[in-house]
Amino acid sequence: MRIAVYGSFRKGGQLHDWIESFKLGAKSHSMDLRELGGIAMYVVGNVPGAKLSEGDSIIAEVWELDLSNAREESALEIMDAVEGVHTGLYERNTIET
């Protein structure tokens, strides 16, 4: 599974250790920084976000997490909880990288 992260999940960010915790015992690695088209960054107050926006792009850190299917779903559920998806603050989207 590949995940593209920006902001606090990137290396050096306050939530980056979360990604590191899923690498234990897995063949996971940071692929690189990639420009992802069709996405724009924005900030409301002090909360960063990204939204689909034709013609814009962001730089995101792309990770390959080599996990079992069960661990992949668990990782996504935990990331959703950390990001506040259930509150409507963020939503998870599938994109092409």
Automatic annotation (TrEMBL):
Classification via InterPro entries: AIG2-like_dom, GGCT-like_sf
Coiled-coil regions, chain positions: none
Domain Gamma-glutamylcyclotransferase AIG2-like: 4-96
Name assigned to this protein: Gamma-glutamylcyclotransferase AIG2-like domain-containing protein
Organism: marine sediment metagenome
